[in-house]
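My main concern about presentation is that the manuscript never shows what a single data entry looks like. In essence, backbone conformation is discretised, so a fold becomes a row of integers matching the chain in length. An entry of this sort, consisting of the sequence and the corresponding backbone structure tokens, reads as follows:
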Amino acid sequence: MIPIKDENPTETFPFVTVSLIIINILVFIWELKLDPYTLNAVIDEFGAVPAKLWGISKGLIPPFISLITCMFLHGGFLHIGGNMLYLWIFGNNVEDRLGHIRFLFFYVICGIIATLFHSVVYPNSSVPLIGASGAISGVLGAYLIEFPFARIVTLVFIFIFITTIRLPAFLFIGFWFFMQYLNGIASLALYTPTGVAWFAHIGGFVSGLILYRFFPKRKSRRKVYYYID
């Protein structure tokens, strides 16, 4: 299932969400201009390597810096395209409720916790973790709490047929999290990180569910944020 849009209008322009998308895209364009050797070196230093975070191995930069920089690196067009799509669909509404500055802090904190959670599961791993999906997973957790019945227009593939359906957010996000959990448990059998950091998604999502309750919300001029039909 691929989300196309949500039927959940906002009251404010999502400056932070748009800025994050632009920064991520600019960084990815910069990555594309690097030769393979330099790109690998950049990812190894500015991606979050669990073994470096726990002091098992060392790099050129302080490891805590990579907790931030890893969120702006991506491994391919599908990687950044999927992440930015999710960030746009779900981030603008969460930013609308939290306000711009609080949303930025929320996003970054969820991303850091997501990376640390992955690193706890795989403490000896030397494989860099990159991508915004941990932070975006936290945004999904917040969206689930605030807008459980908002409709998500979703692209669905049924064998050779493609169609769109409108799903309530709790069903779409619930299915998404269930898939992260299943894949995460399956990856534990190998005890090595796979190509997808499932536990970063899980950690980010759970942190979003918890932290969102403690962030003050912006007062809205509307009484209804979504419609149920």
In short: Residues 223-229 have pLDDT under 50 and may be disordered. The first strand starts at residue 2 and ends at 7.
